[in-house]
Every structure is written in C-alpha cells, then in structure tokens.
Amino acid sequence: MRWFEISVMLLVASMATTLAADVTENVKLNTDGTSEIHNEEQLAVNPTDKTNVVAVWRDFRLGYRRVGVGTSHDAGQSWTDTLFSDAAYPRASDPGICADSSGSFYAHVLSLSNGTALAGVAISVFKSTDGGDSWADPVDAVTSQFGLLDKQMIACDRSGGGTDGYVHLAWYDVFGGIRTCRSTNGGASFERFRQVSNGGSVQWPVPAVGPQGQVYIGWIDFGASELRFDSSADAGVTWGTDRTITPLLITNEPLNGGVDVLAYPAMMADVTEGPRRGTIYVAYIDRREPGGDTDIFLRSSTDQGASWSEPLRINDDPIDNGADQFHPWLVVDEQGNVAVIWLDRRDDPNNLDWHAYLARSFDGGQSFTPNVRVSTQPSSPAAGQTIAAGLIGEYISIDSRDGDLYAVWTDTRDGQQDVWYATAARLDSDDDGAIDTEDNCPTIANRLQRDADGDGQGNECDPDADGDGLDNDSDPDDDDDGLVDENDCAPLDPLVFDRPGEASDLHLEAETLHWSPDGSGAATSYRLDRGSIPSSLWSDYDHACLAAGLATPEANDEQTPPAGETLYYLALLENCFGAGPAGDGTDAPRPDGTSCP
Known about the structure:
CATH class of the domain at 3-17 and 497-579: Mainly Beta
Helix content: under 10%
CATH topology of the domain at 3-17 and 497-579: Immunoglobulin-like
Strand content: 35-45%
Number of strands: 38
Radius of gyration: 29 Å
C-alpha cells in the first residue's frame, strides 16, 4: 500500500497550477482633472517597440471639441497626455491612429471651424517619428469648403512589399458618399481623393490593407440595411463594384440609457506569412432576431471579399438574455490571430452599466476563447451625459504585439467620461494552465495539451483527433484506442481507456505531500485520501477523499490528528474512468473512484 503516516499539522496551500487571465491594473489616460468628457478612443502599438503605445481620443477638457493624445513608453503603466494643436482649425473630433512598419505614428482628426456646423472642413494627419513624444505640423489630407466631411478612419500598410509605408484614409462626404485617398511619401502629402461607394445612404467607412498592398473598405449602407465592401487591387488607385458583407437587423439606434450605436465594420486583414494570409475579418454589432439584444458578430473572407463566412457570435453570455454588447473593434496580430474588444452589459441585470470585454480567435475566426473582462469597475451612461458628444461616442480600440493585447475604452467610474487602458498579457482564457499563445487548444480547457495525431491541434478541439481522415462525428473510435466512443469517457484521448495504475513514492517534503507523476499518460489528474490510525493500530480503515482533480501530484492538509491517533494518506492517480488502486496488498482497501465530493 502506498501510504504515509504523519502526526504533525500541515500548512494549507493551493496546489493549482492553472493561470488566471493576467489583465493589468486599469489606468486612466487623461490627466486634465476636469469633469468634461473624453471618448472615441483609438490606440496603436509601435511594431518596433512593444513598450511604446500611443492613444488618441475626443477631448472636451476646454469645453469644446479637441483631440487628446496619450503616450506611454512602459507598455501602458504610465502615460503623458496633451491636446493636438492646429493653428488653422481651433476645433477637432473623430480621431484615429495607426503605426507603420518603422514605428512612425499617424494620427488623423476631423478638423472643425469655429462655426456652429459640426461637420468637418478638413481631415488632418499628424505624424510622430519619436514614439508620440512630439508631432509634426498637421497635413490636410482632404479639405471641403462646405464642411461636410465625417467619419474618417486610417490604415497603415505594413504588408512588407513595395507598398509598405503607404497611408490610407477613408471618409464619408455628404455630397459624394464613401471616398478615400492615400499618401505614398510617409504622410508628407496625400493624393487626390478616389470615389469608392456607388451610391446609397452610406457612412462609417473603415479601411484595411491586404498582404499585397490591396486596400479594402467596408461601410454601413443605411438604406439597404447591410454592411457594404469594395476593394482595390492596385493599392487604392482604382476601385471595383460595391458588394455586400452582411445584411443587418440593426444599423443605428439608441440602446438603453440613450447610448447611440452603429453597426460599423471593424475590419482588418491578415498580412502574415501564416496559413490564413490574406483573410479579411469584420466584427460588427447586430441582432439575432428583431427586438433582441445586440451582440458582437464576426464574418471573414478568404477570397478578397468576394464571399463571406456565416456570422459567428463572439460574446459568450447566454443568447437573448437581454444584455447588449456594442462598440466592437478588431486587430489581427503578427501571428495571424484575431482579437476583438467591445463594451458589454452582461454584468448588470438592468442592462445599463457596461464593462470592457475581449476575446481572441486562433483558428481564423471559427471559434473564440472564453470572454475576458478587462475593466475592473462598471461604467454608467448616466455619468457625463451630453447630446452634443453623442453620449459616450461611437468606438473604442484594441491592438496587439507579441501575444499581448492593449485595450482602451470609455469609462465613467470617476463620475465622468474618461479614457481608461489595460494590457492583457499572457492570457489563459480557458484557465487550463497554458497561456493562449502557447495553447494547442486555447478555446477549450486541455491541461495536459494532448495532441494524439501531432497536427498541432489539441485533442479537445481537433475535428479529427486521431488523424485517420474521418471527422470525429462520423468516426466510431475518435482516438483509435480500440474502445468505441460510446464506451469511452475520453473519446479524444488514446491514453485514457481505463482506470490508471498505482501511484508511487508518497513522501513529505517541505510540509507538502508529494508522490510520483504518472508516466503512462493514463492519469489526467491526481487525488489524495486521508484516514486515521487509532491507538489500537490497524483495527479498521476509515480513509476518505481529501482532494481530487489535482493538476500535480502534491497536496497539503491542515488537519491536526486527534489525541492518540495518527493520520495516514493514500496517493492516487485518476481519470474519467475513476481513481486507480490505493495499493496492491491483499488487505489494502481500493477506492472506487466515485467517493470524492
């Protein structure tokens, strides 16, 4: 029998090896100390220095529209912030930002006059070559004497080819619909605009760049109630025919609390050398059915927008639970993984207060990790309301570098709308002990990282676990272990087809009980039983389960033996078939594997 006697008190300690999602402390970016509002955030990470992050936002600290900019050189732990200055235009709004391959940042603003009209008279671009510490004088990419420009967004070409370094802008012109222009000289000047949309009641264009310098633009068509799309194969010079990304049940409307939302297409393309190179991803809000709550969906295209996948719901709260999700943004990282951030009301039964949530896909948008809450305090739209500012603005932002996610959002925890930030580093979204970027099955817990056929997909999420060419749904023995699935409680794991063997080498070390790990692979967890030996010695066995489901073969106990008695322990291996034997002696009791609470 593998047992161990002990008559001293053991200190309690947790033996779990799983890692919780590592989200840094939330940090407020704007330091003006006013009760004015700050919203509509975008950020970018320097691709040459992951500690350098720059964010921009709409800022009313002076009592009217300006654009704030924050810079961090320690991955967002601390920030300096100021306002962009433009002598030609005293007001500004609707900011965005991107970084090129060399680490230069390009921030755009909708430049406004001092008149009462809210529409822009120019789209101005500021450039920084020193990590956001200083900015060159703005360049007007486009101007309008009528002041009817709106909803511009920017994309930097980081494709690595001949067009690398191009900067693309897309915007809405009241008289012309969706238009675009580009800079081919590092933002020193911008070429004349090109027409993109063919007509319709349109707005909210978002540009993205493909791996050969293709330019894609998606936007909302309010009249048709759908997201539309066009592409340019020659880096933004000529454009094709408008196509549909997805029909919509919602295009724009106020949610509970008066929050205005729009179903804009948060869009980016995979420019990596990975297996999904060229895939375009679009995240957006919609409803599953008329009158339902808003959710975040993803569609993707592997043929440059000619066709699109079916919508995948990203938020994992219960369907139609009355909680709204809105304001999504999306990033595709340098490994081709997709991350999406949004504002989420699942934690408020009144569907009013929001938190920032995120999720990530490692399989081209076919599935997403369990959702991770980023904000540490809830926000209410009742704080800092103003109709003139669109209540809380229309968008937030996310970026990524080396597997870390950088998030910025509108937050009202201090009683007014402010800009808050957090980094999600070394996430273990499924809480199985393997961080997402190293997990062969990041969406489903698989602590042992089993991969029976060696194809890089963990057993738990591999559609053909044994690599025999048969889909798991049609394969009677998914893991090819000789035990048919209906009799196999671990049908995807060929090493688990019966109870495991006997544990060995139980000993006390540094106030912790240790025993040998299973070498066969049959055990998926470990268990420890405890009993007491009365003064009459071995009159009876009374052991019971002390701890089960342990990730490692070790455990502590705080129990003090009763007077005149000694505690004894039995170390066990276990899997879904039950616990292994407690020993091989003829008089040794054998737990049945079901007695653990």
